[in-house]
Design brief:
The protein is mostly beta strands and 1505 residues long. 12% of the residues lie in helices and 41% in strands. It is built from 13 helices and 106 strands. The strands form 27 sheets. Strands 51, 52, 53, 55, 56 and 57 form a six-stranded antiparallel beta sheet that branches. A five-stranded mixed beta sheet has the order 6-13-12-8-9, with helices on one face.
Length: 1505
């Protein structure tokens, strides 16, 4: 019974312990936090129930875990009062943190917590039921059986304890591992591939698939991918495989304990016939069954090697042509840097327009340097293009400081700890880098905090003190003796959190709660003191810090643990806690402030709310110092030529180097100590192409390695290499032609290749083959030894056999491809007598408008020697009809300069030779030659140095290896050095004339070999030689040049200034002032000045005396140069200057008082007003101004006083102004009108009455001055001549008008004076006055009247107006249309006048009104006129009257028309009219007849009375 009770008690204790192990509590020492979660802890307890087994035994059984209460963040006290708010552990939501952790696509994930609980309960029940407990009376046999049972129970309990240990969550859960890994496969296009794998782990891992490190989204492309997961079996199905599916596929399994991955490679092969494509063959393009076409990709407009500076924006682009074009189909455009695909970000922008792919790098940093590749993927394959991008450092703010570090990254992030790494920059500045400062900034703020007080030498630094759950970015700055660099580009953001939490966040948030229990570190449980950590090791050790790492303890319960770190100095037993104030949460810790060279031991303790655990095992003694050594120096670099601006550098890798970051390559031009980095981002390969070098420069290279510890020693410098294109095989020879043929040989010639491959041509090889009809034979070599000329005599041929020839050129790099074969040539003897075609045509000195063509004499001269040559030219696009001769006469020389070319046009040239038999056939065509000056081309210039040496200089900036300067005279290489001395220094050659003379006349040219035709020439003529000799003499015997010889000028007060100006002089130039061979020193009489900056030399004299007559000289000495200039002042010249000096002094005295700035003169205005005017100065208000004429003062009340006007300093007297004489008013009579209101009469502007002597006098207390103008005789005539000039110039062009009498020519003038002479000319002959032709003036109109003009009056008419000198002529051509229009108008007006004179009209005799008494007779007679005689009619009230008994109408003598009414009655009253008419017109004379009765009148008056 006791045994059963004991077993029952043990079972109850085990059940209670099981309850404690399966529950959780919050790890915290805060009482407030414990109280805030008290309700949660209570709800997490299990309920105990008693059940009976099938054997009727009662056992204690745990109930299922209750539903977890909702977490509350309110802190309460013992009275359940809210006293605060508990801040949760994670500050950011799941979405933000998952974004920072680069979370992948969400899937529905079921938590494994409930499975774990159910499985453990199942194991507990099975274990309990396995224990058989019986209660009965004991017998001996029973006792024995009980003893055996106890032994079995002890064994069972041991198994139970082992099982419980396994059931601990920390032991049960484990990271994922692949039981079955996916296998790589190779398939044909169009097939389907399935990859399978099996992953184990607890909790159950989540599996994701990646293609080339890019997550596969099967939901986005269901037609391509299918992903399945069932019972830990995972598969990826790739349908309809094509070439683009060739890649590495990763299967990644992830749970809270970690991550595992497996890789499988899928290769998709394309079926094709023929040989397999090689690495240099075009990229594969296969048939696309989906679209039914084969896409062909062409990349054009490619970006070149690019250079940028930090902070700039750089764009790369290519034009992509996809053929054929399929609607709605676009290729996949992928950009990559150093084979890593680029993703769009704030620094990288990509754009695809459908035709052009563009990559824009915003705000360049050195991290952006590298090889950029554009890959265009189509359904038929892909095509790529790559080029390197170099990023130069931005300018430093302080000279000598280092540049910014690069590639800042974060590693090993934990709850309060992260390791920051970076790469050292290529340029350390003027001194070595002392270390680096690491700055951090919390995401969402702009405050940067420095993490280390002292600079760290390593490019790796552990940053501690982070706040769990917050995100940070980091940057690094380098420092040396001169200062601190600019900061690097910031790192990617990193979250301070436990890696297990990071893995959970990557897996995504859990599904909605479905009754499961989720165990976290926040869940409370019964307090368990954590065990000791394990595997405490030193992961990093430097002079600045030591980093410890360890594994968390196995026994730690469900709450999070923290750690204390302890250290012990070697030789002591005292352990000192390093972080006693704040335990750390991460299993990493960095210790600073350790003594370098000392040995320490380290251990770690765990702690939680229940207490501090046991210490871990000691690390053993660790000596503080750098564990990572500097890399060794790289091997000797070898530099080889690549292009005109790049060099390829190879070097040996550094030996025994750990954690190599890469290499930096530097170059320096020979002769300097300045080293410039070739790359600003370290490269790991041992080959690098250095671009951006200067063509022709001589450079050496060195390499240094770098790792986290720093830089290695630089390698030794490479051998110097000239930056120029590498040597390659030459191009093809051209223009293989037949020069001469005989029975058994043929003479061939050809043109050397345009591209020599960067080296001289060493020779040529000639091949031949026979041709018979359409059948050609095999090629055979004719010469085994290379030919050194461009012609060859092919011997031992068969007569009448056709041959083809081809030529190959050779240089030091190899043999070129064969030239184009000639046409079939028959080997038979020529019978021609003319010369053969010239050979060796080539051009030099190609410019925009000219070129020099050179050739060699024909190999076959014909029957007589060659006597000259003809050069033909045509534009390249023109056909054979475009050939034209470049000159007329035969050219005796074998060269010719062609001018008059069009810039940018291409030309062909050929040459024909001439002998006595005639002109031979043309040579092979040379061309096309582009008429354009090559950039960088220099011309030969002549220089005369300070010693008088004359030389010609030619410079070339594109010298290559083996290039030489070859000087020629008249295009014959100079071999005789007696006339010229040649000196060459790098890219500059100088030809020095030893003794210049007429023997040196000619054309000198210089050619740079092994270049693209850099050449120039200079023609030395006799005149040019003389000029150069003069310059040489001046340089040998220098003379100080004067801009002008000594001169003098008069200054104010009569001072005399002697001066000259030199063109140039130095500060050491001295001047002696000499008068009559006596040196003058500065005193009261002489003042001297020499301004060396302007070169002006001056000497001043206040006045000239009789003794100053003589020679003044300036003697200059400037080093070995001398100069003299003199001025002779004697005789009349001296006296004239003395007189002017005295006059100027008198003038100065005069101007101290009122004076005339301009003396009295005259002017004629455009209105022909004659004004006497003067300008006065220095006048005051009290200054008196008096005008007089003929010594009679003009008083204020004189008429002439009104002609005087003053405007500031200008005085005028208007001679022709009209003045109205006005009398003074008497009494209160009306005021007389002002003079300006009265219109001026036609008074002459000037007349002889205005002649006289006019004078103006200025006077005040300072002095007086006067001015006189004589307006008589010559003065009067001068005024009249000026008036005539103004009048003549005011005349307008001659105009024409017509009258009934004839034609009038006239011109309008401003004013007419009767003394003005005007003459008219007809056909340059003076017109004599007559009755028919008259001239005259009417007002301001000058006219010429031609009465009754005839054809003889046609012609040119000239009006000659006297202008005081020669006269002003106005011409009118009265011919053509002008004559016709004027004559027609005259005839019309004349006819109109005649018609008006002869028109029928009533001239008189008829009254307007006739009053007649009734019964009287009325007789009226009207006088009429008209030629011819008019017709006459009479009307009454508009009705025509006729002669009858009542009306008697008569018309007599053609002049008199009468009407008689015998006895009028009142009926005769009315309106009458006499109408006359002839062929010129009609007129009516109207009158009114009123008939009255006297009796009726009296009766009317009686009634009125």
């Amino acid at each position: 019974m006791s045994a059963s009770v004991q077993v029952t008690q043990k079972l109850q204790q085990q059940q209670q312990q099981q309850q404690c192990e399966s529950s959780c509590y919050l790890s915290s020492t805060s009482a407030v936090k414990q109280q805030s979660f008290s309700s949660y802890k209570t709800s997490s307890r299990r309920q105990k129930t008693t059940v009976k087994t099938e054997k009727r035994q009662e056992v204690v059984k745990l109930s299922p875990l209750p539903k977890r209460a909702k977490r509350t963040y309110l802190a309460t006290d013992t009275d359940k009062e809210v006293i605060g708010y508990v801040i949760p552990v994670f500050r950011a939501n799941h979405e933000v943190v998952r974004g920072l952790m680069e979370a992948q696509e969400e899937e529905e994930v079921t938590e494994e917590g409930i499975h774990y609980v159910a499985m453990r309960n199942l194991f507990v029940r099975e274990a309990r039921e396995a224990v058989d407990v019986k209660v009965e009376k004991k017998t001996r046999s029973t006792h024995i059986r009980e003893s055996a049972g106890r032994m079995e129970l002890s064994k069972t309990m041991e198994e139970w304890a082992e099982f419980r240990k396994k059931m601990n969550p920390d032991s049960l859960t484990h990271p994922p591992e692949f039981i079955v890994k996916p296998r790589g496969q190779t398939v044909w296009e169009g097939r389907t591939v399935r990859l399978h794998c099996t992953a184990a782990g607890w909790p159950k891992p989540r599996v994701a698939w990646y293609k080339n490190n890019v997550l596969i989204d099967a939901k986005a492309r269901p037609q391509k991918y299918t992903i399945e997961s069932s019972y830990n079996m995972h598969s990826l199905e790739i349908k309809n495989c094509d070439f683009m599916d060739t890649a590495q596929y990763h299967a990644s399994a992830l749970n809270v304990k970690g991550e595992a991955s497996a890789v499988a490679t899928v290769v998709v092969k394309r079926f094709q016939e023929g040989e397999e494509a090689g690495p240099l063959d075009p990229k594969p393009h296969g048939f696309c069954a989906e679209h039914g076409v084969t896409f062909e990709t062409t990349i054009i407009d490619k970006f070149e090697v690019a250079f940028g500076h930090e902070g700039e924006t750089l764009s790369l682009g290519c034009t992509v042509i996809i053929y054929p074009t399929v609607k709605k189909y676009q290729p996949e455009v992928v950009w990559s840097r150093n084979s890593v695909p680029l993703k769009p970000s704030q620094w990288v922008h990509t754009h695809w327009s459908g035709e052009r792919a563009t990559l824009t790098l915003v705000h360049l940093n050195k991290e952006d340097e590298g090889m950029y590749t554009l890959r265009v993927n189509t359904k038929s394959g892909f095509d790529t293009y790559s080029a390197y991008v170099y990023v130069r450092d931005a300018d430093v703010e302080v000279e000598g400081v280092p540049v910014a570090p690069l590639d800042v990254r974060c590693h090993d992030a934990n709850k309060d700890y992260v390791v920051v790494t970076w790469k050292q920059p290529a340029v350390e500045g003027s001194s070595s880098i002392l270390g680096y400062f690491v700055d951090r900034c919390e995401v969402g703020t702009h405050h940067w905090a420095q993490c280390n007080e002292a600079p760290v030498k390593y490019a790796r630094f552990p940053v501690t003190g982070l706040v769990e759950g917050r995100s940070y970015v980091f940057r690094v700055r380098a420092t040396n003796k001169e200062g601190v660099s600019r900061p690097s580009r910031v790192s990617d953001a990193v979250v301070a959190m436990d890696p297990s939490d990071r893995a959970r966040l990557r897996a995504g948030p859990s599904a909605p709660w479905t009754g499961m229990i989720k165990f976290t570190e926040e869940d409370p449980t019964v307090g368990v003191v954590p065990g000791e950590p394990s595997d405490v090791v030193v992961t990093e050790a430097t002079k600045s810090y030591v980093v410890l790492a360890w594994k968390p303890p196995v026994q730690r319960g469900h709450e999070g643990v923290m750690y204390y770190i302890e250290k012990c100095i070697s030789g002591t037993d005292a352990w000192q806690r390093v972080n006693s104030g704040m335990p750390v949460k991460s299993p990493r810790f960095a210790l600073f402030d350790l003594a370098e060279g000392r040995s320490y031991s380290f251990r770690v303790r765990c702690c939680n709310s229940s207490g501090v655990g046991e210490a871990s095992a000691s690390t053993g003694e660790i000596t503080v110092g750098d564990k990572l050594d500097l890399p060794s120096s790289p091997g000797n670099p070898v530099a080889t030529r690549n292009t005109d601006t790049s060099v390829v550098v190879f070097w040996g890798a550094s030996k025994d180097v750990k954690y190599l970051v890469g290499y930096y390559v530097e170059y320096s031009e020979v002769g300097t100590d300045v080293w410039t980095p070739c790359n600003n981002k370290p490269v790991k390969q041992t080959r690098f192409v250095c671009h951006g070098l200067t063509t022709g420069s001589n450079c050496v290279f060195r390499v240094k390695a770098v790792n986290a510890a720093g830089y290695s020693q630089s390698s030794s410098a490479s051998e110097a290499v000239v930056v120029k294109a590498a040597i390659s095989v030459p191009g093809r020879a051209t223009g293989v032609t037949l020069l001469e043929a005989a029975k058994d040989y043929m003479m061939l010639a050809w043109t050397e290749p345009a591209n020599k491959g960067g080296a001289d041509i060493r020779g040529y090889f000639v091949d031949y083959r026979t041709v018979k009809g359409d059948v050609v034979g095999k090629w055979h070599e004719m010469n085994l030894k290379a030919l050194t000329t461009t012609s060859y005599k092919a011997e031992n041929l068969k007569e009448n056999v056709f041959y083809q020839f081809q030529v190959r050129a050779m240089n030091m790099a190899g043999v070129s491809e064969a030239s184009l074969p000639t046409s079939a040539l028959e080997c038979k003897e020529w019978t021609i007598t003319v010369a053969g075609p010239p050979v060796g045509l080539h051009v030099l000195e190609v410019r925009d408008a000219s070129a020099v063509v050179l050739w060699e004499r024909p190999a076959f001269d014909g029957r007589t020697p060659v006597s000259g040559y003809y050069l033909d030219i045509k534009e390249a696009p023109a056909g054979e009809q475009g050939w034209k001769a470049a000159h007329e006469k035969a050219n005796k020389t074998k060269y010719m300069k062609v001018t008059g070319l069009k810039s940018g046009a291409s030309y062909d040239f050929r040459v024909r030779a001439q002998n006595l038999a005639g002109v031979g056939g043309p040579s092979a065509v040379l061309g096309p030659i582009l008429a354009r000056t090559r950039p960088g081309t220099n011309e030969i210039h002549v220089d005369v140095d300070d010693d008088g040496v004359i030389s010609m200089i030619f410079e070339c900036s594109e010298m290559k290896e083996g290039s030489e300067f070859v000087w020629s005279k008249n295009y014959q290489t100079i071999t005789d050095t007696s006339r010229l001395t040649l000196v060459t220094e790098q890219g500059r050659s100088r030809a020095i004339f030893n003794s210049p003379s007429l023997e040196d006349l000619g054309t000198f040219s210089c050619v740079v070999t092994n270049t693209d035709g850099f050449s120039s020439s200079y023609t030395l003529t006799e005149e040019g030689l003389k000029r150069l000799l003069d310059i040489s003499h001046d340089h040998k015997f220098p003379v100080i040049p004067f801009k002008n010889e000594m001169a003098f000028e008069l200054l104010e007060k009569g001072r005399v200034r002697f001066w000259t100006e030199v063109e140039k002089c130095t500060s050491a130039c001295q001047v002696d002032y000499v008068f009559n061979d006596v040196i003058i020193n500065e005193d009261k009489k002489y003042t001297v000045n020499f301004n060396k900056s302007t070169g002006i030399i001056e000497m001043f004299m206040d006045s000239l005396e009789i003794s100053d007559e003589g020679t003044f000289t300036f003697d200059l000495v400037d080093g070995k140069a001398k100069g003299t200039t003199s001025l002779v002042l004697i005789g009349d010249e001296f006296r004239e200057l003395q007189k002017k000096s005295e006059f100027e002094r008198a003038e100065w005295v005069r101007k101290q008082g009122p004076h005339f700035v301009e003396y009295l003169g005259f002017t004629v205005t455009p209105e022909c007003n004659v004004l006497l005017k003067c300008k006065i100065g220095n006048v005051r208000q009290e200054t008196q101004i008096t005008w007089s004429k003929d010594s009679i003062e003009i008083a204020e009340d004189d008429e002439d006083a009104q002609k005087i006007e003053r405007n500031d300093g200008d005085l005028t007297f208007n001679i022709g102004k009209w003045v109205i004489k006005q009398e003074k008013p008497k009494g209160k009579e009306g005021k007389r009108p002002p003079a300006e209101d009265v219109p001026p009469p036609p008074r002459p502007k000037i007349s002889k009455a205005d002649a006289g002597t006019y004078q103006v006098l200025l006077r005040d207390d300072r002095g007086k001055d006067k001015s006189v103008f004589d307006l008589t005789d010559a003065g009067y005539q001068a005024v009249m001549n000026e008036l005539f000039r103004v009048i003549a110039n005011s005349s307008c062009g001659i105009k024409v008008t017509s009258t009934e009498h004839g034609i009038i020519l006239y011109s309008m003038i401003t004013y007419y004076n009767e003394e003005l002479r005007v003459g008219w000319l007809h056909k340059d002959a003076k017109i004599a006055a007559s009755e028919r032709v008259k001239s005259g003036v009417t007002g301001e109109q000058l006219w010429l009247k031609i009465n009754e003009p005839t054809e003889k009056d046609k012609g040119k008419y000239t009006m000659d107006i006297f202008d005081g000198k020669d006269g002003v002529k106005r011409v009118f051509d009265l011919t053509g249309k002008a004559w016709e229009e004027a004559f027609e108008e005259f005839q019309r007006l004349k006819a109109a006048a005649i018609a008006e004179r002869n028109r029928a009209r009533v001239v008189g005799g008829l009254p307007d009104v006739v009053a007649i008494q009734e019964g009287k007779s009325l007789n009226l007679t009207g006088n009429v006129w008209g030629e011819p005689a008019p017709e006459v009619r009479w009307t009454k009230n508009d009705k025509e009257l006729a002669t009858d008994e009542r009306y008697q109408l008569k018309f007599e003598h053609g002049k008199f028309a009468s009407i008689t009414i015998a006895a009028v009655t009142t009926a005769d009253s009315g309106k009458y009219a006499l109408l006359v008419k002839n062929k010129y017109g009609t007129e009516a004379g109207e009158f009114t007849v009123s008939v009255y009765n006297p009796e009726d009148e009296e009766n009317k008056e009686g009634k009125k009375g």
